[in-house]
Amino acid sequence: MYSQAEENYLKTIYVLEKDFGDDVSTNLIAGKTKTKPSSVTDMLKKLAIKDLVLYKKYQGVKLTETGRLTALKVIRKHRLWECFLVQKLNFNWDEVHEIAEQLEHVKSELLINKLDAFLRFPKLDPHGDPIPDEQGRIIKNQSTSIIDMKLGSTGTLVAVKDSSETFLRYLNKKNLALGDKLKVIDIEPYDNSYHIETKTHRLVITNNVAENLLLKNVK
Amino acid sequence: MYSQAEENYLKTIYVLEKDFGDDVSTNLIAGKTKTKPSSVTDMLKKLAIKDLVLYKKYQGVKLTETGRLTALKVIRKHRLWECFLVQKLNFNWDEVHEIAEQLEHVKSELLINKLDAFLRFPKLDPHGDPIPDEQGRIIKNQSTSIIDMKLGSTGTLVAVKDSSETFLRYLNKKNLALGDKLKVIDIEPYDNSYHIETKTHRLVITNNVAENLLLKNVK
DNA sequence: ATATTATTTTAGATATGTCTAAATTTTAGC
DNA sequence: GCTAAAATTTAGACATATCTAAAATAATAT
Ligand SMILES: [Mn+2]
Ligand SMILES: [Mn+2]
Ligand SMILES: [Mn+2]
Ligand SMILES: [Mn+2]
Fold it and tell me: Coil, strand, or helix at residue A197?
């Protein structure tokens, strides 16, 4: 149906729409996909012809309903495979993203639904991200990034924004994992770094790290 | 490392070398891969430059050691994924080949070795084909095709040469499965068709079908 | 409001993998 | 051994997906 490149662009646009609102810009996509803006323009034209995005020259793009559904199907596959790798093959959560980037492009509705059943219909992937169902329905996880938390507030780490090996290894090293209760004990105005406290230890994290940690039950 | 197209050619050449002896011809490869001979020539040149095949113009190709090992690694992945699909996801043996054609190209040594362990190191895939180990070692299954059996001889069906959905569905319909004991009760000289007998029924199969059924303990 | 800068698009090139049609080489028939 | 047929290769084209450099457009700053 769609090529791997097309599927990857749709996924990227989906995520960017979520993070930055609609009308995603060419440069933003190029940044995320590590390609040049000219390549992005070429692809946006192709996607527009296939009715996967609405594209107006110089104005950025927006996913159509078909585009959004296609993106969600790829995301569903990605996250189910990540669950499989962690739960069944005993991978660590920092090792699965790159492999899932490949597996998500395997074409077979039956395969992914059987995998879903085998895993007993998980709702979240190893990084705390919700798994869309067969129809592309996805639970909105209204979690809060640490950068939106006030001094002294607490919450439970439920997801990470960045699933890269490097970031997750950093969290491993700092002894941070999903489910941990965190408290913001200081915010440094100079560099916007955060001092946080868990049940077992305290640590300082940069603003960049803080942005990628998502919490629930923030009080 | 290698592209999907390259991996597929190597696999095809490996199988053809086995079935027809070395120095595989351009047309033979084109037939198997459903491409044109001119495309095959182009690819053979590329594979030769990468030292995966020995290629002499107009003389066909032969895999190098690297080429053979690469082919075996892809075959290992293909067959392990087929095991996974049948044993864990409850696919039928006639549904898995096409999906495995995609999964076999996923790149990760760790993944395939963890999958191997998860499946408890199977020796045979759902079609009776041996699974190469990590080093590319493969058990030679000296099975006999029905076309090489004498009138009145018996044997146990242990593998099929053709793993296509159409052929396996034909076997399902005819109530033939791996493990069945067969006896050749008649050979029709006119069209080389075979009359065979199982524990439960008798049937007539064409020479083409007979060729694709592999037996052991032939007496 | 105009100039400068940043963003985006176009034009033209490259790499992969395929094709058709034509040329070349090998094989087989006599 | 020569000729016709078959097999193989070459030449040139096309589709996808990427790039660089240049041109066009939009945003911003004075
Ligand atoms: Mn991921
Ligand atoms: Mn994930
Ligand atoms: Mn197969
Ligand atoms: Mn098989």
Answer: strand
* Closest chain B CA to residue A108: B99
Quote the CA–CA distance of A161 and A165 in Å, as a whole number. Answer: 12
For A108, list phi and psi in degrees, rounded to 5. Answer: 180, 110
Q: Are the Cβ atoms of B99 and A111 closer than 8 angstroms?
A: yes
- A94-129 pLDDT, tens per residue? 999 999 999 999 999 999 999 999 999 999 999 999
State the nucleotide closest to B31 in CA–C1' terms. D7
Nearest to A203 by CA among A158, A156, A170: A170
Interacting residues of B219 by C-beta distance below 8 A, sequence separation 6+: B153, B154, B155
Which residues make beta-bridge pairs with A121?
none
Q: How far apart are CA A36 and CA A27, in angstroms?
A: 8
CA distance B30 to A179: 55
Does residue A124 sit at the B interface (CB-CB below 8 Å)?
no
* Structural domains of chain A in order of their starting residue, each with its CATH number: 4-63 (1.10.10.10), 144-216 (2.30.30.90)
CA dihedral B50, B51, B53, B59 (to 10 degrees): 90
- CB of B58 within 7 Å of some strand C atom: yes
Cβ of residue B106 closer than 8 Å to a chain A Cβ: yes
Task: Look at residue B100 and give its three-state secondary structure.
Answer: helix
B90 touches chain A (CB under 8 A): yes
Local confidence band at A142 (pLDDT 50, 70, 90 cut-offs) = confident
From residue A216, alpha-carbon distances to A148, A203, B81 in Å are 12, 20, 38
Question: Can you say whether the dihedral through the CA atoms of B174, B175, B178, B184 is positive or negative?
Answer: negative
Average pLDDT, chain B: 95
- Which nucleotide, over all strands, has the C1' atom closest to the CA of B60? D8
- Residue at token pair 């969290």: A171
